[in-house]
Amino acid sequence: MNGIDPVAERALREAGAAARDETLASVSSDTVDDALSSVLDRAGRTDVDEARTERTDPSRRRAIVMLTSAAAMLAVLVAGLVVVLREPDGATVVTDRPDPTAPVTTATDAADPDPADPSPTTIEPAPTTTLLDPVAPEPTATSPPSTEPVTEATQPPPVEPEPPTGPEAAPGIETAIAYECADDLGCTSLGQAPSGALLATVPGRDELVRYTSDGTDPISIPVDGVDLAATETRVLAVGPDDTAYVVTQVGERADLVAIATQGSEAGSVVGTWPEAIDPSGDTDYVPTTFGLVPVGCCGGSATRPDPTELPVATWVDRAGDDIRLDTTATITVGESGNELVVANPDGERRFALPVVAQWMRGMPAVTPLDDGGATAVLWDALTSTSWVLTYGPDDLAELPRLDAGYLHALPRAGSSQLLLVEQGGTLLVETDRTVRRVAVGDVADRGW
Q: H/E element holding 177?
């Protein structure tokens, strides 16, 4: 019984002894006669008397009894062995292991029940376990079996996300454009070149920064020939050949310089117009074919800019030579009709202006769009409201309905300020020192 649990071995031995004693006590002459007759029938013998004579032989009777007892013991042992299962590594697992502290029932107790107890004493058969039943894996030294009760895993309740606040709550897509401010020197300003490149001033630094059209991949352009770091600067326009026209202002003096931003000439000043800019900020400067033409804040002609007005600065390329601008915009107001005209080498497109344009201040900032439409931002002096007008290429001369999508009030959120209308029709706005690209409807309320 090497490898069998001692408690189990003891229980098997006691059960076998009890079975043997019970079998010997239950054997009688009639039982022997019946068993002998059965054996003779199987062996083909018919001499019952001879068999009876053999039965009377004490030695044969003892052999028969021993054989019967052995058969009973063998049955008990087989049942016990089925209960005991060996693990592959030698560990023994006993199912329904007896409690070593419980009283042990002996063969005498089973054969001779207490006369005072009328109920017979029976031995309950042990539960059997087959090799198909699952066996618990053997515990190892590194992972001892857990004694903790098994509890069903539960999923934590879903957490409702809190609404974003601050810059994350702003609409649109954040760009890589850095927005900086410096005391008495203003903040970052933006302009877009005909090529789509974005150009920015950096307050307090002698440099410009060039970005791709999507506002990424910044390239610093050191500027020679003008002290940008000591003046308040802003991009007024970007002309042909991506030349930046930058206002430099100190006190009541505002000069205009043209700075190349491409090629080996990048950072060079290629044009200068001293005191060409109104320092009060009440004058708009409109890009025309030959240069920047001023439009005053109050009054003015019915056509803006005035075609008879001379430019305060002409367009030059990176080498400083004169160059012309292909696409321009003008507006006409008054009783003759309110319209916006965008001219380019392909011809003219005329867009109807709303009634609020009759009280416009100065010249709206008009951006011809890549798709043939246009976006204009104007100030309504009567209602003190900025309006964003968005036109598709097919909105032309017929006056749209008042609820049409072209008219928006700006801004919807006071925390955002408009920096630039892009040629693709989107807006660049600043919110909490972050520059984001948004659709017009994200920051302006539609209609009146």
A: strand 173-178
Average pLDDT over residues 59-73: 53
pLDDT at position 364: 87
CA distances from 406 to 4, 19, 352, 354 (A): 93, 105, 10, 10
> Does an H or E element contain 7, and which?
helix 6-26
Each residue's pLDDT tens digit, 37-51: 654 565 454 444 444
How far from the centroid of its chain's Cα atoms is residue 27's Cα? 84
Lookup: tokens for 219: 């390239």
> What pLDDT is attached to residue 90?
44
Contacts of 199 (CB under 8 A, 6+ apart): 190, 191, 192, 193, 208, 209, 210, 211, 235, 238, 242, 244, 261
- Enclosing H/E stretch for 38: helix 29-43
Rounded-to-integer distance, Cα 368 and Cα 391, Å: 10
Q: Tell me which residue of 385, 387, 423, 391 sits closest to 405, measured CA to CA.
A: 391
Query: Distance (Å, rounded) from C-alpha 278 to C-alpha 362?
Result: 14
Structure tokens at 380: 């309504």
**pLDDT at residue 200, rounded to an integer:** 98
For the cut 90, the answer to whether the pLDDT of residue 426 exceeds it is yes
Q: What angle do CA 148, 152, 155 make, to 5 degrees?
A: 125
Cis amide prior to 222 (ω within 30 degrees): no
CA distance 53 to 81: 40
Please give the helix or strand (H or E) that residue 11 lies within, else none: helix 6-26
- In terms of pLDDT, which residue wins out, 315 or 66? 315
DSSP letters of 141-164? SSSPPP-SPP----PPPPPPPPPP
Q: How far apart are CA 354 and CA 337, in angstroms?
A: 10
Task: Report pLDDT digits (tens) over 130-155.
Answer: 433 444 445 554 555 555 554 444 55
Q: Give every CB contact of residue 53 below 8 A, 6+ residues apart in sequence.
A: none
The amino acid present at 445, given as its one-letter code, is D
What's the predicted TM-score (pTM) here?
0.62
Burial 173-212 (b: 16+ CB within 10 A, else e): eebebebeeeeebbbbbbbbbeeebbbbbbbbbbebbbbe
pLDDT in tens, 159-179: 554 544 444 456 789 999 999
Return contacts of 299-306, CB within 8 angstroms, 24+ apart.
Answer: 300/362, 302/332, 302/333, 302/334, 302/336, 303/330, 303/331, 303/332, 304/330, 304/331, 304/332, 304/333, 304/362, 304/363, 305/330, 305/363
